[in-house]
# Entry
Amino acid sequence: MNKKTEYNIRTDIKFSAMTKFDIADVVNANTEKWFNQPLVEVNDSVVRLGVLEGEFHFHKHDDEDELFYVVDGKLLLDVEDETHELTAGQGYVAPKGVVHRTRAPQKVVVLVTASAGVTPTGD
# Structure
């Protein structure tokens, strides 16, 4: 995974409150290797859907924690000098101020939750 990954990081909220949505439909419609779409806003947080293959750059969020929850596949989460392997049904919180990055040797589907003001690419 040494080649540069192209990112498609969207900022538009796809669904409003009181709208039924199907994550599988969004995943199946995706054709990109690195796709990040805000699904819905809940209180002061945003739930984002990531369909990922490749690696992201190291970054941090100065003021926000970030929750990663794997829906399908395997996600490698590099946090400072450790790597955490997450599989379907597992999650991990990267605390604010902690340098981290995600890697996916093969396609993985994740939900990421953070405050609505978080910059997905880091501060």
About this structure: The chain has one domain: 8-115.
